[in-house]
Each structure stands twice: as structure tokens, then as C-alpha cells.
Fold this protein.
Amino acid sequence: MDKGILAPVEIVGAALNAGKAKAERKFMPMLVLAILAGAFIAFAAEASNMAAFNLLGDPSTFGLGRCLAGSIFAGGLMLVVLTGAELFTGNTLICIAVYEKQVKFGSMMRNWGIVYVGNFIGSVLIAFMMIQTGLLGSADGALGAMTIKIAMNKVNMGFMAALFSGIMCNWLVCLAVWIAFAANTVQGKILGIFFPIWMFVTSGFEHCVANMYYIPAGIMAKAGYAQAGGFSQEMLDSLTWGTFVTGNLIPATIGNIIGGVLFVGTAYWFALYRPSKNK
């Protein structure tokens, strides 16, 4: 009889098989699926910003705004998982297949590199398209100003803060993927994804692929919406492509790798799969 959910040790096996399939995928299909995943996460980011920007701008409603943003953002990972797209943060779980010697370390790194670039392309594409729509001018430019503010906060948060925020982010993201592996129905996968992603966005943790939308969108928005936010020139000068990479993307990516590899993939493989195999 078909079960609605896998046992915990069976989830490790499912993640192992998924990791093998991902690592063996050819270059162009992998790149296209990665571009799609980047776009899906960017769609979730821009939609959550649109819904919550006015709440985020008021300290008395900030938490409510984060909560609303998280509830919408979860749809991005649902699109990734249910359509079979390739997302860098979730692909950190390929480490399980490496531990089991069914995927070479170099093959995992190849997947990570191609998917990372593809995610960047897809995310920046949506950021560019959002600028072209003029929708950031919503509410007399308040959405554009909030987009800039979010990006500035991210590039100025500090290396260690971004690192640890990245760790906690992908710990939750990979748990969402983990629960999706466990569920054998679309409804189960959607519910399994929703709550961990809601928690990560509400908490304000750093997701490197989401930031491939948030920060480039903020950089592009400076030309049209900086005045609406009343930012000083010094604040605007802190938001550049260089600070995007050094101030956020590098530490957030390292943190995301640690969170997914160590606290989900390695932890469950070590605690559940190895003892089961040995037994």
C-alpha cells in the first residue's frame, strides 16, 4: 500500500537518489532549470515585497509585514520543487550522495557552479524586468524606496551577521526540501514547504539566491526611486555591485552551504542512514 509519507531514514535515501540524478544532468538542461529556479525565487521575492512594503516601513507593523512576506515567499520554493527546477541552496543536499560514494565531489561542485550561475541569471532577469514594468513606482515610489532600503541593509549587515543568518536560512530551506521528499502527494509537499520557508523569511535570514533579486533590484532602483526614500549620498554609495558580492553574496553563500550540508544533509545521513546501513 502506498504511504503518504516516507519514514525519516527513507527520506535520506530519497535525497540520495535525487542528488545522483542532479549531479548526472547534462549542462544545458541543468542551466535552463537553474535559470527557471532563480526566476521563481525572484518572483516570490518581488511579490512578497509588493504585498508587505508599506508594513515593513512602519516599526509598529514590521513583524506583521515579515509574516505576510514569508507566507507569499513560500510559493517560490513550491514552484522550484514541484516543477523540478534546480536551486543552489537545496542542491547542497547532494553531499549525501558524495558521502555514499555515488557522486564524485567534483560532480557535486560542477552542479553547484552551474546552478549558482543559472540562479543568478534568472534572479537578475526578473529584477531587470521589474524595473522595466515601472511597478516599483507603486505608492508614489514607496515600493522602489523600500527595495533600495532592503538592499542597503543587506550589503551593510556585516560579514559574520550575514554568515550566521545564511546558516540558519538554509537549515530551514533544506528542511523544507527534506519534508517535500517525505511527502508523496502534492498537497503534502506544499504544506511541508510552506512552514519552514515562512519561518525563514519572517525571521529575516539571508538566502543567497533570493538576494540575487533583492540586491540587484535595489541597485537598479537607485536611478529612479532614491529620492522617494530620502537616502543620503553616502548610503546610496554603499550599495554597489561590489558591495553586493563582498558584503552579502559571499558570506550568505558560505552560510547557506554550511546550513544545508552540515545541519541537514550530514546530520541526517550520519544519525539515520549510516546506522541503518550498518545494521
Notes: DSSP finds eleven helices and no strands in the chain.
